Amino acid sequence: MTAADYTRARRMLARRDPVIRDLIRQHGPCGLADAQHTDPFTALVHAIVSQQLSTRAAATIAARVDALLGGTPTPERLAAVTDPQLRAAGLSGQKIAYMRDLCARIEDGSLALDRLHTLDDAAVIEALTRVKGIGRWTAEMFLMFRLHRPDVLPVGDLGIVKAVQRAYRLRKAPDPKRLTRIGEPWRPFRSIACWYLWASLGNKPNVNPTPTVVD
Question: Whole-prediction pTM value?
Answer without folding.
Answer: 0.85
